Every structure is written in C-alpha cells, then in structure tokens.
Amino acid sequence: MQIRKISKGDVRGFIDCYVEIWESLKGILPEEYVNDQIEKASGNIFQDDLLSKTSDPVSIFLVAEVGTETIGLAWGNIRKYGSSWLSFLGVSPDHRRKGVGKSLLTRFIEESKKKGSRKIRLDTDPRLIPALKLYENMGFIPEGITKNPYGLELIIYGKVIE
C-alpha cells in the first residue's frame, strides 16, 4: 500500500472511491444525507473543484493505493492561526481494518505539520464507531458537538501536533 498526494490523473479514481465509501454507509447514516453526497460527487462541479484543489497550497489531498487501485482517501486544509481541518477520511469496504485509515491519518498529520499546523480538528458522526476508535487511538480528544446542514449531530475532535 502506498499513501501519496493526489495528482490531476487521480481524480477519477478518487471520485470512484469516494462514491464507494458513501455507498457503504447506506443503512448507517441517513439515506438522504448519503444519497446527496453521492449525487454531488457524481457531478461536474465536484470534479472541477477537486481538480482545482490538487494544486492549492492550503489543501491536503491524499490517496491510498494498492497497485493502481485507489482504496482510501483523506482531505482537508490548512486554516488560519496554525490549524488544519480534516474534511474527509474514508477507506473502501474491502480494505477496512487493515491499517489504511491509520496510515492516511498519520500522513495527513505529517503534511499538516509540514505546512505549519499545530492542531488538527475534524468532526464525525457518532454512528461511525470505527472512525471514533481510530481518532481516539491516534490521540484526538472530543471537544464538543456541532450540527451539519442536515441537522445531524457530529462530534468535534481535536489534536495538538508537535
């Protein structure tokens, strides 16, 4: 398995993996929310946005690969005042529980640190138990609760990086 920064040639595989991850969340997260994420990812706006961010210096887009297959994703950005935001971390269903998520998160932390970040924050749905365990095992601490635009309560996590 290899973890690396995304390139423009990875966009199709990135989107395919993203959709596969969201498809696997049907029955765990609300159907409307999951379907909207899949629909957005299938449109040209998502692809164009992704292409533009591959060269954006404040963005961090990572892919996990086995051979030429994209099996996991992480993305986020550097925010003001020395912090990073992890917007998405996911692994395709056939490759879960094999350390892919941990490897992606470790690399995201490294890339954030290289760009001057001193803290990483994220939010996640409390129904995603494996994600909660990963974040907590990697030293992230619950900092509060927020709601997303769909009204879902999400746990905010943070980790100071040194």
**CATH C-level category:** Alpha Beta
If strands are numbered along the chain, what order do they take across the biggest sheet?
Answer: 1-2-3-4-5-7-6
CATH superfamily: Gcn5-related N-acetyltransferase (GNAT)
What pattern of helices and strands is seen along the backbone? Answer: EHHHEEEHEHEE
Strand content: 25-35%
Question: How far is the first residue's CA from the last residue's CA?
Answer: 26 Å
Helix-and-strand structural type: alpha+beta
The portion of residues assigned to helices is 25-40%
Q: Pick out the low-confidence regions.
A: none
Largest pleated sheet:
7 strands, mixed
Number of domains: 1
Give the overall form. globular
User: What is the count of DSSP helices, taking H or I runs of 4+ residues?
Assistant: 5
What gyration radius follows from the Cα positions, in whole Å?
A: 15 Å
Q: Find the count of extended strands (DSSP E, 2+ residues).
A: 7
CATH architecture label: 3-Layer(aba) Sandwich
Return the average pLDDT rounded to an integer: 94
CATH fold title: Aminopeptidase
Structural topology:
Layout: E1 2-5, H1 11-23, H2 31-41, H3 44-53, E2 59-66, E3 69-79, E4 83-91, H4 100-114, E5 119-124, H5 129-137, E6 141-147, E7 153-160
Parallel strand pairs: 4-5
Antiparallel strand pairs: 1-2, 2-3, 3-4, 5-7, 6-7
Helix pairs in contact: 1-2
How is this structure best described in words?
The protein has 162 residues and is α+β, with helices and mostly antiparallel strands. It has one domain: Aminopeptidase (3-Layer(aba) Sandwich). The protein is 36% helix and 33% strand. It is built from five helices and seven strands. A seven-stranded mixed beta sheet has the order 1-2-3-4-5-7-6. Strand 6 and strand 7 form a beta hairpin. Helix 1 runs antiparallel to helix 2. The protein is globular, with a radius of gyration of 15 Å. The relative contact order is 0.16. The mean pLDDT is 94.
